[in-house]
Amino acid sequence: MPFLPYYDHIDPGQGGSSMVIPELPRPVLDRPQVFTCSLCHEDFPSYEHWFQHRFEAHPYRRPLLVLGSREVNTPRFVVTTTLKPKQIQAINAEICRLDGQTISPATLAHRLATAKSGFFKVELVGAEGKLKVEYEISIEIATTEHASLVEQEFARLYTSGGVSVTSISGFIQATAGARTAQRYVDGLAAYLYGLLAKDQRGGTILSQEQGRARFNEAHQALAEIDRPLATVVAGIVSFQLNAFSKNEGLVAVPRLRVAMRWFDSVRKTGLLGAIEECDSTLAPTAHVPLDSSTDEVLTWMGLSPSKISALTRQIEKRMQQDDWLPEDRIKAKVLLASIYESEGAITKAAQVARGFRHDPVFGRLAERLISDKKDSADE
Ligand SMILES: [Zn+2]
């Protein structure tokens, strides 16, 4: 069974004790360098810039709770990372209530920021009492001790050599004591079940389609958890689902980072540049289980141009294979088109491109390759 190596500043072999890899920045530091406006997609270098822009450029009337860089638009919301009081803002709220009690916005921010766990009812009233928004905020911040225990148990899947329905049950049982990290456990378990379903192995009874639903659950739970393993797994799921724009915070996992960025640039520009090389001299300290098609795509992308060219028949076979999910077949097609284009085989590249012309992610690339072929035929 394939595993994807990554760097973890927690050494699972040391009983959860923290070990910082000196040559590498802590993966978490790579995380929120850019704050993107959800309305106009403009990027901002700091939280303050983003916040100011968000409510000055796009006026908003309704009361709104903003937690970190998230606008809470759902009646239920789970907080899994520690926030500072200044990152908790009640917008357009003349009255704030916490569990029925009227308090100041500053007190609301302080109360939510200092709670490690618990369930809170937040009510914001604005527009001279005409608009009211209610939230149920669940705070589930894992203690370091509990999160480390989860990671330690997860690492056993590598040392024991594989994932099966039985080993996932074992993981869930072994982490039952990590009370504050249950969402972390749920997310990782959903990922593992999704993996077995995708590969149809390890005693799974789920279909590939049910596996996809598990991956979505895993992403939802893990994307908000500020731990390297959670970030890596959420990144893998984004790659599996061809959501290449979600590529922040992946310094811990260089192979995936290179692949995500390459596909993201192809998606945005419609151009097939060279694939960056991963130059890492340090040996990775941890491993996360991977489905076989993601492993194969990442392996291709790590090869030199001549070596990947020798694999065209293999890639062609994969892109027609029924047990490969549509997202993975598309990735194979894009890579094959890239090989053909780099060899100057424009007709062949255009032929492959017809196969993903209507793909919402790579439509732009397909159109470009098809029209390049037409232009060359006109000459
Ligand atoms: Zn904006």
UniProtKB/TrEMBL annotation:
Keywords: Metal-binding, Zinc, Zinc-finger. Residues 35-63 form the C2H2-type domain. It comes from the Bacteria. GO terms for molecular function: zinc ion binding. This is C2H2-type domain-containing protein. It comes from Cupriavidus lacunae.
